[in-house]
Design a protein that fits this description.
Elements: E1 3-9, E2 18-24, E3 31-40, H1 43-49, E4 66-73, E5 85-88, E6 91-93, H2 99-102, E7 114-115, E8 138-142, E9 147-148, H3 155-158, H4 164-174, E10 182-186, H5 192-201, E11 205-210, H6 216-222, E12 226-229, H7 233-238, E13 243-248, H8 256-260, E14 263-271, H9 283-287, E15 292-295, H10 301-314, E16 320-323, H11 328-336, E17 343-347
Parallel strand pairs: 10-11, 10-13, 11-12, 13-14, 14-15, 16-17
Antiparallel strand pairs: 1-2, 3-4, 3-8, 3-17, 4-5, 5-9, 6-7
Helix pairs in contact: 4-5, 4-10
Length: 351
């Protein structure tokens, strides 16, 4: 039997969010029905809702930072039971048989990852023929794409970890951040502030590189040892050759060549935020000190669970502003104006 859920949808790139009802698919044998309690607002939601990446299907229900409680399970579900604290991130499906999927890297599925919203899918699985996300009161997801939220994290501050958290955790693990490693985080926003917390908990020496010193006190409070303003040219002279790993969390067009010079021997700069325009990179700055320029995209389901367990162990949650559903439009405007500390989370009880 299908589930009718309240949701907030946008019907045009220049439209406003309105309350609607949507139909979730019938609960299959391997499915979990989740009563959504909180959902984070990611910058990707804004890009999609406003069709800035093109190809948005309307009406659009964004949201891929979902935290809630299990309301029902299918007959073959073994991992969860009613009442469990669970989450859903950026993915709700993949082929399961290609090399990346078999390596627990479903986000790189060779046959196409099924994203949590605005992804074409079988009309039998979602009315309308494309996925609708977590700006709603309920969702049905196959159990293999549901993760457990440990008791050590509140559901509200856990929600942003389902995207922002794993987006930072994955490259920090992949490039072995830890004691003795010097890590720089570019940007102190929704992604960057979580990265500071996680990198510090891993034992790395953390530096924040932000346009100004406005958030310096927050950066140091969250675990950074150093905080520099990139608006000051002297910063790039003082920090040359300093870092083993730099994570770029911002989507703005940055002078990447300048940041490459901050890497030490065998250092890596990882692109997480997606700038609008191509990056200009001088080969000389890569060849010098055997530097690398790389990218990373969220993390697989197993690593997302690992990240949540790590965050619970270290008392890490996102810094959030809790809002009601009727504040989504104003929250989008505030995100674009960098007026949030540090992640908006929607209380779905207000739907």
């Amino acid at each position: 039997m299908s589930t009718v859920a309240a949701a907030y949808a946008i019907s045009a790139p220049d439209g406003s969010f309105e309350k609607v009802t949507i139909e979730r698919r019938d609960l299959g044998p391997n499915d979990v029905l989740i009563d959504i309690k909180y959902v984070g607002i990611c910058h990707s939601d804004i890009h999609t809702a406003r069709n800035e990446w093109k190809g948005t299907s309307y009406p659009c229900v964004p949201g891929h930072e979902i935290a809630g409680l299990v309301a029902a399970v299918g007959s073959a579900v073994t991992k969860y039971q009613v009442g469990d604290r669970v989450g859903v991130g950026c993915m709700v499906g993949s082929c399961g048989v290609c090399a990346p999927c078999l390596a627990d890297e479903e986000q790189y599925c060779e046959r196409g990852t099924v994203w949590t919203y605005n992804n074409p899918t079988d009309p039998a699985l979602q009315a309308g023929g494309y996925t609708m996300g977590g700006y709603s009161t309920a969702v049905v997801v196959t159990e293999n794409f549901v993760v457990s939220i440990p008791e050590g994290i509140g559901l509200d501050v856990a929600a942003p970890l389902l995207c922002a958290g794993v987006t930072l955790y994955s490259p920090l693990r992949h490039w072995q951040a830890g004691p003795g490693k010097k890590v720089a985080i570019i940007g102190m926003g929704g992604l960057g502030h979580v990265g500071v917390k996680i990198a510090a908990a891993m034992g790395a020496e953390v530096t924040v590189l932000s346009q100004s010193l406005r958030k310096r006190d927050d950066g140091l409070r969250l675990g950074a040892t150093h905080y520099y303003a990139t608006g000051d040219r002297q910063t790039f002279k003082d920090l040359r050759g300093r870092f083993d790993l730099i994570l770029n969390t911002v989507s703005a067009d940055l002078p990447i060549d300048h940041y490459l010079k901050l890497l030490a021997l065998d250092g890596t700069l990882v692109i997480l935020g997606l700038p609008e325009n191509p990056m200009a990179v001088t080969g000389r700055n890569l060849a010098a000190y055997r530097r690398s320029l790389a990218g990373s995209m969220i993390g697989g389901i197993a690593q997302t669970q690992e990240m949540l367990n790590f965050c619970a162990e270290h008392g890490i949650g996102a810094e959030i502003e809790l809002i009601s559903a009727d504040e989504i439009d104003s929250a989008y405007d505030r995100v674009m104006a960098s007026d949030v500390q540090y992640r908006f989370v929607i209380d779905t009880s207000t739907m």
